[in-house]
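anyone seen this seq b4? input:
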Amino acid sequence: MKPQRELFGSRGAVIMAMAGSAIGLGNIWRFPYIMGEYGGAAFILAFIVCGAFVSLPIFLSEAVIGRRSHQNTFGAMETLAPGTKWKWVGLLTVVTPLIIVSYYSVVGGWSIDYLLKSVTLQFRPENAGQVSGMFQQLMSSTWRPLFCHLVFIGLCAVIVYFGVKKGIERFSKATMPVLFVLIVVIAVYSMTLPGAGAGIEYLLKPDFSKLTAQAWAAALGQSFFSLSLGVGTMLTYSSYVSEKENLLLSSGGTALSDLFFAIIAGFAVMPAVFAAGITPGEGPGLVFQTLPYIFASMGGSSRLISAVVAILFFLTVLVAALSSAISMMEVGVAYLSEEKGVSRGKATLGIFLFAAVLGSLCSLSFGPLAGVSLHGLSIFDFCDKLCSNFLMMIGALLFSLFVGWKMKKSDVMDELTNSGKIRHGRAFAQVIYYLIKFVAPVAIVLIFVLGLI
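predicted toks r here
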């Protein structure tokens, strides 16, 4: 017998939990440097367009499946398309987030290490020349990143163990407002630095000559990955949403929260980058190498302030990483507890052990296992490429095809309009339906092909 299903307590809880899943390292770590590579403000505009016309419809595809079935990803497909092979799509989206959370927790572990470095005041002016090397030293070592990875995945397991209301909802409601306050504080500080004006202008003055086909593909991909689409997290969270809830408002609120956070993160990072005279397209090391260098370079009266900001910044990175990781872990826990009859405690322990082992191999692939390769890639990079370039794409494509072509249009509209009760949103729901049916699949295939090229 399947256990009694918990539901989120309110619309605010739904948006906080979903926003927590969407807002993660992709917003703080990935968005600023990709924006730096493709021209700042012009890229932001492309990101907004892609989010509105592609990512939001895909997001709503998962939301419709989850709320319609009130099941985990596997059970949802079995419920809505009984006796068909669609259930294997659900199983695929159980496996994908398990792999992602395993290597994602390695990067989450780095945020723990850098938070500890900030608290112990290691980013000092006299250490400025050594800061960039700290990152390489961390990755190539054995025990420190491994320990931080296990601490991170352990924190995720504790939150998930307490369930939907006492764990996920409580954590999200407590941390999301704090997360926004922290990133705003850091952005304000960043914009007051000497020389930060060039960074602000870079963010506000669009250079449309930078909007090449490659830039649009990057904006589409960033929008797609920013909302954690195609891995079943939004489907699973939506399965905990009451029938009384307005899916259009909840999903729209989540997408807007994710967008605002990403833009604020840009203002937190880019002015500081320009103030330090660093190239805005520095790459993935922007957060773990460039910003600590900026913190360390500030001496004199600003030394204490920079130390506090460093602590706040890496606390923000850690909380954002946790909020996304728990949503990925919840997908597997929901599957085991509902389909296999395993208690939440044992299911959480099982997912923790899986992620701990695979994540440990990913962590060690930067050090002792650096010589081990899979198709020419390290274990970490192989897992990342497998999920980002293939499994997530396939999952999102199949979700949009399922809602657009397999489900009855009347059922989809029933979910989007709460059985016709949301009359003022019916025209918008019609638009969303056709975006799901025609635009989203084409966009996903486009991202996939451009990624291969």
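The chain has a mean pLDDT of 88. Residues 26 and 253 are 18 Å apart (CA to CA). kinda curious what u guys think
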